[in-house]
Amino acid sequence: MDDKFIQELRDTHPEDKRRPELLIQGMKDTLQERKELNVFKRWLWRQRNKRKLTDRFKR
Length: 59
Fold this sequence. Notes:
Layout: H1 3-11, H2 18-36, H3 39-57
């Protein structure tokens, strides 16, 4: 998500009717950016996140 989206989300009131639409559009944009990444970068992104998850649940 870009800084413009984050700032616009912060500026909207929690009870504003436009806020859910803004959140949905932000998630769609984020997913589209991930899809546009090449295969190697997507693989690296998944590997980093898997490590973070497994480290959190180790005791």
